[in-house]
Amino acid sequence: MIRIVQSDEFTLKREEQDLHAKEREIVIDMIKQVRQHGDEAVRAFTRRFDGIDLHDFRVPFEQYEAAYQQVSPLFLEALRDAIRNIRKYHEGQLRPSTLTPMADGVLLGQLIRPLKRVGVYVPGGTAAYPSSVLMNVIPAQVAGVKEIVLVTPPDREGNISPGVLVAIHELGVKEVYRIGGAQAIAALAYGTETIRAVDKIVGPGNIYVALAKQAVFGKVGIESMAGPSDILVIADDSADPEYVAADLLSQAEHGELSQAILLTPSRTLAEQVAAQIVHQVAKLPRRAIAEAAIRNMGAIVVTKDLQEAVAIANRVAPEHLELLVRDAEEYISQIENAGAIFVGAYSSEPVGDYFCGTNHVLPTEGTARFSSPLNVDDFLKKQSLIRYSKEALMKNGRKIIEMAQVEGLEAHANAIRIRLEKEGKGE
After folding, report:
1. Bridge partners (DSSP) listed for residue 114
2. What's the sign of the alpha-carbon dihedral 395, 400, 406, 408?
């Protein structure tokens, strides 16, 4: 089911964005319709794609009450513990504004302020993700965002997943709309009669949501262009093949384009993991999806040694990277490109997905080479502060004029020259 190859035979498979020309055209038209017709267009697309005609987009209060009766006490306990862990972790990312006094009475600074209004997209449909609520809302709250707007698609009865509703209620999000897809992204970006436009949109979704976020970028901010989920495991002969197979499948079940790769210098482990994948995938409810992902996007690569495995991992730049090797901590500093690094046999990827506190919104498709997990900074903006003194301008004005004139910007130069002349410091 999963291919076993030598390192010199390994080629990386990745989805090409250009394959989505048709979907992009659909999305652009949907955004145009929402911009022109507002709620009417959102309502029409919700009827068409979600199978329900909603007069009121807001989630009725009684759905929240009912949701608590439909989740288990253990789920509620786990959710509340996860909220505490995630909030504590993200609070550690906060930093103050800075003011730096310079010579001649100059004061320079960086002011850090929260965004005012943020939209959070939470997927629905075939699967609902309470964890997406936590991972996207909590860092925004920690950053100090005052207005958080959440959208999520309803089922054909207009209901939202009980787990998602409980997560929303536990976090105290008040502005929640039962809409999804590209129409929800358009509504958040441009506003409608019901929904006021936001400053930034975060959260994962299907290809239509991803393309819509890409299309509205510039009108609003987005956190990333999320692609299919992926995992890469580096393991030696000390690793448990059952653990390795289970962790590879934990990402393969996300979708048929999810990538799962094992790098190991042990041919024996490679064969054991391959056998375990066949054994374990047969028991999964999402077996068809996981099998397709493993068959099309999975690979077990037998490397010369662990150093070659690390080198390949840095080229792949995975979303999730697990180190299941002896003395795993010694290899952390060598991992240059990864969204999240999971160290040791008990740091299974779902620990980060749900509970420990780190954010599970991670860079995908190799973008860990230049981007980071979702964090508090994604919900903050920085402003430069300049208080230049008369003494400093009189001292440095001629230098500023010279630089402006070299660039051919005489009005820039003149803005300084006028001040120097008025103070008797002109030519």
Report:
1. 380
2. negative
Residues of the chain with CATH 3.40.50.1980: 4-12+228-370, 38-222
Phi-psi region at 327: left, alpha or beta (left = phi > 0; alpha = psi -120 to 50): left
Looking at the structure, give the CATH architecture of the domain made up of residues 38-222. 3-Layer(aba) Sandwich (3.40)
DSSP 213-233: HHHHBTTBEES------EEEE
Strand partners, 259: 230
CATH of domain 4-12+228-370: 3.40.50.1980
Q: Report d(CA 399, CA 54) in Å as an integer.
A: 64
* Cβ(240)–Cβ(59) below 8 Å: no
Per-residue pLDDT tens for 336-391? Answer: 999 999 999 999 999 999 999 999 999 999 999 999 999 999 999 999 999 999 99
Q: Please tell me whether residue 77 adopts helix, strand or coil conformation.
A: helix
Residue 178, token pair as written in the block: 């039962």
Catalogue the active-site residues: 319-320
DSSP state for residue 325 in the 8-state scheme: S
Query: CA-to-CA distance for 134 and 275, rounded, in angstroms?
Result: 36
State the binding site for substrate: 229, 251, 254, 320, 353, 407, 412
From residue 64, give the alpha-carbon distance in Å to each of 70, 131, 163, 167: 10, 17, 10, 10
287 vs 247, 349, 379, CA distance in Å? 15, 19, 37
3-state secondary structure of 114: strand
DSSP state of 239: S
**Residue ranges of the binding site for Zn(2+):** 251, 254, 353, 412
User: What three-state secondary structure class fits 151?
Assistant: strand
Chain segment 14-64, per-residue pLDDT in tens: 655 566 889 999 999 999 999 999 999 999 999 999 999 999 999 999 999
Contacts of 239 (CB under 8 A, 6+ apart): 264, 269, 324, 325, 345
Please report, for residues 127, 267, 308, 319, 343, the alpha-carbon distance to residue 331 in angstroms, rounded to integers and kept in the order given.
Answer: 36, 21, 12, 17, 9
Residue 348: CB partners within 8 Å, gap ≥ 6? Answer: 243, 246, 247, 250, 322, 342
Q: From the annotation, which residues make up the binding site for NAD(+)? A: 121, 183, 206
